[in-house]
Every structure is written in C-alpha cells, then in structure tokens.
Amino acid sequence: SAIYELSCEAYKHLGKTSNYYWIDPDGSGTLGPLKVYCNMTEDKVWTTVYHDLQMQTSVGGNSPEKLSVLHLNYSATMDQISAITSSAEYCEQFISYSCKMSRLLNTPEGNPYTWWVGKANEKHYYWGGSGPGIQKCACGIERNCTDPKYYCNCDADYKQWRKDSGMLSYKEHLPVSQVVVGDLDRPGSEAKVSVGPVRCQGDRNYWNAASFVTSSSYLHFSTFQGETSADISFYFKTSASDGVFLENLGNTDFIKLELKSATEVSFSFDVGNGPVEIVVRSPNPLNDDQWHRVNAERNVKQASLQVDQLPLEVRKAPTEGHTRLELYSQLYVGAAGGQRGFLGCIRSLRMNGVTLDLEERAKVTPGVKPGCSGHCTSYGMYCANGGKCVEKYNGYSCDCSRTAYDGPFCIKDVGAFFEEGMWLRYNFHSPGTSVKDLVSRTLLSSADPEITAPDLGLNKEELSFSFSTTKSPCVLLYVSSYTPDFMAVLVNPNGNLQIRYNLGGTKEPYNIDIDHRNMANGQPHTVNVTRNGRDIVLQLDHYPPTSYSLPATSDIQFNSPKALFLGKVIEIGKIDQDIYKYNTPGFTGCLSRVQFNQIAPLKAALRPTNTSSHVHIQGELVESNCGASPLTIPPMSAATDPWHLDSGKVASADFPYNGQAIGDGVNRNSAIIGGVIAVVIFTILCTLVFLIRYMFRHKGTYHTNEAKGAESAESADAAIMNNDPNFTETIDESKKEWLI
C-alpha cells in the first residue's frame, strides 16, 4: 500500500504545512513517487516542480550556430508532471526572453526565430502572457510594445536590452522541456532566457465525489481492465451500516468491495480458483460520518486490503491455478444486481491509477448527487485557535476572521515590530454607533444578553498575546474606559511583568507582580489573562497557570470600556502615575497575535477587514513574526521530553518518508568527525570575517534591522523577482541545497 500521499492536497488535509514532500500521483501505478514543493499558504494548494536551467541563461553573443537549444531537466519525469497537470485546476510556468538585437517571434508576419517545446515534444510559437495559436507576446496582447509595429518588444531589434516575459498557462502544453533560440548569428546579437518552475494549483481528483441518496442508486463505468493487477483506492463517508461500494462481474469471475457491517470492510474476487474474501475489522465503527480510506490491491502473487491506518490484511495467491481476472460487465459503483447499495459519499475513486469522474457521471444519474457535503466533520479539527471550519462544495476552508491568526489553518501569528514611540489604538466603537450597540456586539459574547445599557461593562475578559522586548519599563497593553476603570499589562523598570486592574472600590489599583522572571530579555513570551468576576487566572509561557482574586472590596465590573492601546497610552483625562512614567519613551519590540475577547487589534490593523476603521496608528507599523517564535523552555531531561528522538516518531511528522528519517544508516563516528571538521571550518571563517571587517572598517558600517529585514528577499534569486513582477516564485537557495 502507498506510503506517499497522492498529492499536495492530501498532505494539506493531514494538517501538514508548506514543505517538500514525496507524492505518488498514480498510487501503485508505474509512475513512481516524485518530490515536489507544496505551498499551503493559500486556500488552494500550489504544487511546484523545479528544473535545472539557471535563470537568465545567456545564449549567443555572435555564435556561428544558427540555433541554440536549451534543455530543461526536471526533478520528475514528463509522465509524472503530466499526472500533476492533468489533475490540477490551473497550471502556469513563467518564461522570459531578454534580448539585444535578437528577434523573438519575428512578428507581425514572419516565421518565429525562437520557440519552446512542451509536452509530447510539440513546438509552440506563442510566448508568456499569450495563448495557443496567437503568435504574440504579452505586450502585443496588451498593446504596449516598445514599437507598436511589432507584437513583441524584442522583434523591434533594438541595440538596447529589451524583454518579453509572462506566464504560459495552457496546462495541456506544459511543462517547457526545451527553448530553441534562433536569431543570434549577427554581430552584437545577445539573449538571455529564464524559465520558472511548473506551478499547479488545486486538485480535481482529490475532491471528485458523489453522494448516493438511495440504496438502489448506482453509477456505471466501462469494464475494469485489471486482468493481472488491480489497484483500487477511495474514501467513503456514511452513517449506514452496510452496502456495496463497487462490483464488476465476468462469467464466473468477479471483483467486489463492500461495507459488510458497521466495523467490517470486505474485498472479494474470483479469478477461476473459487471466491477469495479479505476482511478488515475496525475497532471503531466506520459509519460515523467521517472520511475513511480504503486501499485494495491484487496481483498474481497476492492480494491485500487496508482501511485507514489499520493493519494491512494480506492473502497469498495459490501457487497453481488461474491468475487472470476476466470481467465482462460494466463496473458498478453503488448498488449492483439488486443488492443493497452504498448510502453516503464516495470520493477520489482511483482504479489502476486513473481517477473515475464520479462527479460528471452523477450529474446525469438519478438518485446520485455530484459532490459531497460534511467535510468539516472530518477536517474541522485542523482549524486551530478558534478558527471556524466552513463547508465548501469541494472541500472546506478555515475562517480565521474571529481570531488573531491567519493562514489556511489559522496557525500563523499576525504580529508587528514597534519602533520607539509608536502606538496603536483600537476604539471599541466606531464614530456614530452607540456604546451599547458596540459593546454588546463586539466585546460581549452572545452568551451574556442580560447586560443592558446604563451599566454597560464586562464581568469577564480573556486576553492573550505574545511579545518580545529588551527595553523596560514599558506599557505593553492598556484598556481604557469612559470611567476611571482600566486594565494594563506592563513591564516594570526591573524587567518584570505586572498586570494591573482598577475596577473601582479599592484605594489603589490591584497588581499582580511576577517578580522572579526578567521578561525584557529579548525572547518571545506569551501572556494569557482570563478574568471571570473576582477570579483571575494568569498563564505565562509554559509555566502552570496561577490563580489570583480581586480584593473583597473591589468592584467586579469593568465599566464602559472605551479603547485598547498597544505600545503607549494616549488617553484624555487622569492617567495612573506609574503608567504615565512608563509611557516614555514607549515600547520597542514585537507584539504578536493580540486578542482581547473577540477583538484582534493588530490583525485589524494589518489585514483590511470591516473592523479596520476602529484602528488608529501613530508611526509606521511593520508586519513581523519576531514576537511569535516558539516559547523558550529550559532543556528537559530525555525522560520527560515528549520530543526526544528515541522512536523516529518525530521523523514521520516532518518527512513524508513514513518515519524513515533521512540518514538512518549514518554511523556515529562519521557524525563526530563531521562535527569536528565543521567546528574547525567555522573557526577559520570567523577569523577571516574578523580580519576582513578590521581591514575594511573605515568603509562605513553595515546596518541591519532584523524586524524589517525579515520581510525582504530571501535569496539571490529574489533579485529577478524584484525586476520582474510576473515571476511569482523563486527557489530559496537553502532549500535547493536540502533538495540535493
């Protein structure tokens, strides 16, 4: 059975994040697995396959040859790439031709000098940004070529560098396997060619599904050709306790998969030696309306059946006897021959590497509906941090709008770098709404309908955020009100955290001091504060939560909340003396994933939403995740550390090699020798750097700003990206190294 998933989409639904993965687009078919980069940051997954042609490859320079041929070698075979492009919803590949006295397509009328070769060795005479049959470049379609007489910038034959570039997006022609450049035989002719990786989005096969509404409904397809080998895989979801998934009959031969009971899946067949049945029994019911995966294989040696991650059931074939499965009838998916058919959903049905189009067939079949609903029951758990799972016709997505997070699974912190003197204010009500509307709408969960106008206030708050700073004292967060009530999170002059509540009824504000830890140490720290009436629970980093109680005389209502401040408090009226002192020069550092009840002020400032009008910023807010990195935890002993690598468990979390971590067989001595060599090289490099800096120190200092730099280009290739807005994805050099 397959150890690799069929596509990037499948890895995404295992809750994986963007990385390189091995995928096997046709199951156990002939193609074999290939390594691709899966980008999960958008709603639809991007799959990227790279090749070895350098960007800006120079051709020509007065070469005597008439034609210069550039070959692209991919990290996958053409058939493997075709399997990806054919199941994708959209594919693209960037292509660019920079020229100096070197014509490209010889527009408007001539024979092209340059062409590219795509799938099935076909030549194509259109260029990026254009389409099949149109002998034009992007500028010819947009009508903005350097010389309007031509349809490509390069065809004007100028002595200065010009460029024609754009996306090839007719996926039936991709990938580009060669570029043949022709116009190079005159003195002064020069050209440079760039071709990006193939990028495909979406996976039509993964969500191709049908819902069987009655137990007599079925879909039929042409006879299954599985004489010597059969490989069948699909997902099912049902609340019924039995039913036939699929069946194909011959004279006496047959092949059949069915749900026999709520806990049993059966794979049965007869190749002429009498019927054989393999049954997988599940400890938990399979009719729980969750997706379950079935994988059945049969060849001349053996047959096997696997359900989800349960143990594989294998049956060896007899040494003598028939081996060919001879079928004549159509393939029935669902009820066949008067049997009780399957009720529920079947998805991503693949027979010998080919996905059957259940969706198209269901559109014209009574009793069967295309698509499936109810993906959230199986995948909703991947929407983290309070993100809501939203059903879609083909899949699901996570709605992160009520959270302080971002990304497809709501796990990406949204944070920012604050320069000294910068601050942010979030007004709880926008101009023109009454306080009552506002507080009841945004701050109070609908569970508290009994709070009414004159004494508008909060009996409970939930606050969580993370921060890092090296400067104290400072104000991290402050919630003001239309009364003297306030709440503040401060770092005092010693670098210790203080939570301060003033709800009335006490002479002095109530303080919670965390004295024994320096929080201004430049490390990210997380703070969670929950108040319910008089009870306050504070959790800091990974330490156990601690409970506190407001004094008996204290009021327990936070009256008329007005605004939330980050970094500094700029509020009219009387302000607490300490806070006034801590306000200058202000907070410098990082704040991340700030959430107060239902409100995420930083996210509202950085992501345009309907609440952005509530935000006022002084200074320039630079998005950064510098406050979000993992908590700093003192090293644990191997015995208590759940991540201690003693079982290869972690390897399977990060690498798609099913637990076989890379470098299984590397012995220890070579690792130690390697370590020693690395240290020696490192020392030499450090010495060199020191010497070079010493020699060149009069040439001016090199100033970096980590927070701002974090957002800028990561690799040398990014230079191309900056010059060329079309080139959307560059390979990070470090990842390339890892690939090899």
From TrEMBL:
Keyword Endoplasmic reticulum: no
Pfam families found in the cross-reference section: Laminin_G_2
Gene3D superfamilies: 2.60.120.1000, 2.60.120.200, Laminin (2.10.25.10)
Biological source species: Pomatorhinus ruficollis
Lineage of origin: Eukaryota, Metazoa, Chordata, Craniata, Vertebrata
A Gene Ontology BP annotation from the UniProt entry: cell adhesion
Cysteine-cysteine disulfides: C345-C372
Gene behind the chain: Cntnap2_1
Keyword Iron applies: no
Residue span, Laminin G domain: 208-372, 440-626
InterPro entries (UniProt xref): ConA-like_dom_sf, EGF, Fibrinogen-like_C, Fibrinogen_a/b/g_C_dom, Laminin_G, Neurexin-like, Neurexin-related_CASP
Domain Fibrinogen C-terminal: 1-51
Annotated compartments: Membrane
Full protein name: CNTP2 protein
Family: Belongs to the neurexin family.
One Gene Ontology cellular component annotation held by this UniProt entry: membrane
SUPFAM superfamilies: Concanavalin A-like lectins/glucanases, Fibrinogen C-terminal domain-like
